[in-house]
Structures are given as structure tokens and as C-alpha cells.
């Protein structure tokens, strides 16, 4: 019986959280090959980050088929869950708790899925995708065929209205197009995260746009819908940078949060590249609020208006 079914039986839960299923898949995989634990660790290395100190200390102790329970759920014996009794339930609770904790030190949150060539009007790129190991989230992007040592990087958040419907209310499409142009010229990568509407989703953006129509600014409109100002996360960056061997970047952005996010993802931001946005009557207030309330850099654009 597979481990997922065992756990479902013991806990009487039909469905398990996504992150747990992912984790259990890893455990299952390990179980099959645990005869040779060194080998198992080596093969699972892309699944779990195992601190080298753990490898050198714990592994030497663990040789048999029954793996000693240790700090990490990675070392939990699956035989623990054989009997659906009270003790098993307690062990299971601890095990699940440990799995959750171990996920926080997971080396890889997003796995590289694949890439292929994509010829676009801005140049010939490689089109790639990553999949979250914990959720259904996907991260797509394009990169130049070769990447320089310090590539230009654009971390772009999806915008249905701007990117797809050419809306004039935001600068999203202009930034997307200009980024693709410069990335093609200099070499780099555009990471496209599907966190539309600063993370509130495309549908909720309809609601906040309605509030803005009635006079609320972008931030106030978020609050009127009970959303914080910016719900985006950047947890995918680390794995994307790591996969492509990127350690230092020139970041195309006006958004200071993205600089922090990239630094926290382990790369050096050696330069931020500011691409000028065109101010028009529809996006003026939006860009002004971004500058005044969210500290985005649109000084150049607004000083040119004066
Ligand atoms: N909630 C909300 N989201 C908006 C609004 N206008 C644009 N957006 C979203 O804001 C996001 C803009 O993301 P990015 O293009 O990555 O830009 P940024 O975070 O402003 O930073 P830059 O890197 O400087 O472009 C997209 O997800 C848009 O859908 C708005 O009025 N309300």
C-alpha cells in the first residue's frame, strides 16, 4: 500500500494537502531505493536540500532498511505507519508536523519543467517553465539563447488588462515589450509570474478598478476590497536563478521590493535598469500613487512633465 493511502487510512482524510502529497511522493520514491541509503540521498538530492553535516553524520549511522527517525522527516521509517492504531496516529501527527517544518528548508520549491525555442517579434528566445512543488503555481519566461555573466533580468507580474488587452491604465505592457527588446539586445531573462493584479487575481482587479473609477487611488482601492497593497511573492526566484546558473544580475525595475526579493533569492543586484514609461491621462494617477505610496521610481517621468 502506498504511503499516501496509509496516511489517509490512519487519519481518515480523503484528501491531503498539496505540499504533503508532494512530500510523500518524495518519501515513496526514497522508500523504494532505501536499500542503499547513500544512493537514495544522492538521487533525492534535487528534492531535498540536505545539509552536508547531516549527510556526513547521520548517514553513516543509517544503513539498514529501517531508517532511524531523526530530526528530519527524510529519515523517518515508513514502517512507522504500518498499524492504524493510537500510537501510529501520534507518530503520524509528529511526522506531518516535521514534514511541514522540513518544507521550509526545502532547497527546491520550483522544479524546472522544460524549455523550447520561441521566435518572437523581439528576438529568438528560449521559452521555459517551472512548476511549484507545493502548489499548482507555474512560472514561465523567456531567456536569450546564451546568458552573459551579468544578465539583464525582468521579473514581470502578469497583467491581463495591460499585457493582453493593451490597456492604457497601467505601464505593464510597455515595460514587458521594452524589457524584451533590451534583453534580446544584451542577453538576459524575463521571468513571468502569473500573479495578476499584484497578486489579487484578474477577477478582483475588476473590482478595484471600479473603486478607482469612483476616485480611490490604487492602494485605497485594495483596502476597500479588504486586500493588502501587494500580495505578490517571489519564492520562485531562487530556483530559477539557480537553474540557469545566475549569480549576479542587472534588474529591470522601478520597484524597490523586487530588488530586495532578488537579493534574498541569493543573487547580487549589481545595477537596477530603469526603462522609461510613457505617462498618459489614463495612467498618470496610477503611476503617481506607485511613486508616492509604494516608493517606485518614476521621478524621471514626472520631472519631464514639468
Ligand atoms: N491590484 C492592482 N493591480 C494592478 C493595478 N494596475 C496594475 N496592476 C498589476 O500590477 C502588477 C504590475 O507588475 P509589474 O509589471 O511586475 O510591475 P511593478 O511591480 O509595478 O514593478 P516594475 O518592476 O517597476 O514594473 C501586475 O500584476 C498588474 O496586473 C491596479 O490598479 N490594481
Your description of this structure?
This protein has 306 residues and is an alpha/beta fold. The chain has two domains: 101 residues, no CATH class; 160 residues, Rossmann fold (3-Layer(aba) Sandwich). The protein is 43% helix and 17% strand. A seven-stranded mixed sheet has the order 1-2-3-5-4-6-7, with helices on both faces. β1 and β2 form a beta hairpin. The N and C termini lie far apart (72 Å). Bound molecules: guanosine-5'-triphosphate (GTP). The site of guanosine-5'-triphosphate (GTP) has 21 residues, from β4, α7, α8 and α9. Keywords: GTP-binding, Hydrolase, Nucleotide-binding, Riboflavin biosynthesis. It catalyses: GTP + 4 H2O = 2,5-diamino-6-hydroxy-4-(5-phosphoribosylamino)-pyrimidine + formate + 2 phosphate + 3 H(+).
Features:
306 residues, alpha/beta, Rossmann fold, 2 domains, seven-stranded mixed β-sheet, 13 helices, 7 strands, globular, binds guanosine-5'-triphosphate
Short description:
The chain has helices spanning 3-11, 18-32, 37-44, 52-61, 86-103, 160-164, 172-186, 202-213, 218-224, 237-243, 256-264, 284-294, 299-305; strands at 110-120, 123-132, 138-144, 152-157, 188-193, 248-252, 268-273.
* CA-CA gap between termini: 72 Å
The run of helices and strands is HHHHHEEEEHHEHHHEHEHH
Number of domains: 2
Question: Radius of gyration from the CA trace?
Answer: 24 Å
Q: What would CATH call the class of the largest domain?
A: Alpha Beta
Order of strands, widest sheet: 1-2-3-5-4-6-7
Q: What is the CATH architecture annotation of the largest domain?
A: 3-Layer(aba) Sandwich
GO molecular function: 3,4-dihydroxy-2-butanone-4-phosphate synthase activity; GTP binding; GTP cyclohydrolase II activity
Catalytic activity: GTP + 4 H2O = 2,5-diamino-6-hydroxy-4-(5-phosphoribosylamino)-pyrimidine + formate + 2 phosphate + 3 H(+)
Domain GTP cyclohydrolase II: 115-273
Protein name: GTP cyclohydrolase II
Amino acid at each position: 500500500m502506498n504511503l499516501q493511502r496509509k496516511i489517509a487510512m490512519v487519519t481518515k482524510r480523503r484528501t491531503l494537502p498539496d505540499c504533503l502529497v508532494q512530500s510523500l511522493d518524495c518519501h515513496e520514491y526514497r522508500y523504494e531505493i532505501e536499500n542503499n541509503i547513500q544512493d537514495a540521498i544522492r538521487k533525492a538530492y534535487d528534492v531535498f536540500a540536505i545539509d552536508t553535516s547531516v549527510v556526513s553524520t547521520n548517514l553513516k549511522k543509517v544503513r539498514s532498511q529501517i531508517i532511524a527517525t531523526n530530526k528530519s522527516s527524510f529519515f523517518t521509517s515508513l514502517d512507522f505507519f504500518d498499524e492504524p492504531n493510537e500510537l501510529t496516529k501520534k507518530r503520524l501527527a509528529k511526522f506531518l508536523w516535521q514534514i511541514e517544518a522540513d518544507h521550509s528548508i526545502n532547497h527546491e520549491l520550483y522544479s524546472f519543467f522544460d524549455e523550447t525555442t520561441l521566435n518572437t517579434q523581439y528576438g529568438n528566445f528560449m521559452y521555459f517553465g517551472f512548476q511549484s512543488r507545493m502548489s499548482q503555481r507555474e512560472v514561465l519566461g523567456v531567456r536569450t539563447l546564451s546568458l552573459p555573466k551579468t544578465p539583464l533580468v525582468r521579473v514581470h507580474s502578469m497583467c491581463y488588462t495591460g499585457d493582453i488587452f493593451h490597456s492604457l491604465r497601467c505601464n505593464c505592457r510597455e515595460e514587458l515589450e521594452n524589457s524584451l527588446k533590451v534583453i534580446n539586445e544584451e542577453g538576459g531573462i524575463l521571468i513571468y509570474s502569473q500573479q495578476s493584479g499584484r497578486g489579487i487575481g484578474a477577477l478582483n482587479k475588476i473590482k478595484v478598478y471600479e473603486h478607482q473609477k469612483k476616485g480611490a487611488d490604487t492602494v485605497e482601492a485594495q483596502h476597500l476590497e479588504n486586500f493588502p497593497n501587494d500580495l505578490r511573492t517571489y519564492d520562485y526566484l531562487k530556483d530559477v536563478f539557480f537553474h540557469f546558473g545566475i549569480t549576479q544580475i542587472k534588474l529591470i525595475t522601478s520597484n524597490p521590493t523586487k530588488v530586495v526579493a532578488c537579493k534574498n533569492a541569493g543573487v547580487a543586484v549589481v545595477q537596477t535598469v530603469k526603462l522609461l514609461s510613457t505617462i498618459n491621462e489614463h495612467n498618470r494617477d496610477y503611476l503617481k500613487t506607485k511613486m508616492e505610496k509604494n516608493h517606485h521610481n518614476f521621478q524621471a517621468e514626472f520631472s519631464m512633465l514639468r
